Amino acid sequence: MSEATSPFSDFAFEKYGLGHLTAEQREAMIGDLHEELSCRVGQALSQGLCDAELAEFEAFMDRVPGFSLAWLEVHAPGFRTEAAWSGAWRTLEATSPTVEVAYAEMASMVWLQVKRPNAREVVARIHADIVREVDETFNASNAGR
């Protein structure tokens, strides 16, 4: 994930005395933060889901051939034309490396909207938690200086 597309792209390297890091080191640090965010968000969003719901979402992520399109045709048959979804579909179709990836991404977006409509708030809360933890860690390590 590039620094520009990460939720941590505004990470304050200078604030933490890390302005000297190379672009590669910054990218690696942002990647680590993103990985932690993904893990925590996954844990939070999976709470309370049954095994079938988890398996369904895993099939999107695993890009099981044909699964995502079949799911979309049942659960969001108008995803290509309905105003609520057509813009996202056109973007995914144009930017995804394959149509199967586009279907999987679209299905996961629809699935989250239906199963976890608060997903954006969960991501924002966990992102803020991680930033707070980084602040606390740096403040504690610099307290003795």
Describe this structure in words.
It is a single chain. The chain has helices spanning 23-46, 51-61, 67-75, 83-95, 99-115, 119-142. The protein is mainly alpha-helical. It has one domain (3-142). It is elongated. Residues 1-5 have low confidence and may be disordered.
**Rg value:** 19 Å
Oligomer class = single chain
How large a portion of the residues is in β-strands, by DSSP E? under 5%
N-end to C-end Cα span = 34 Å
Please tally the helical runs, counting DSSP H or I stretches of 4 or more residues: 6
List keywords for this structure.
single chain; 145 residues; mainly alpha; 6 helices; 68% helix; disordered N terminus
In short:
With 145 residues, the chain is mainly alpha-helical.
Strand-helix topology:
Layout: H1 23-46, H2 51-61, H3 67-75, H4 83-95, H5 99-115, H6 119-142
Helix pairs in contact: 1-6, 2-5, 3-5, 4-5
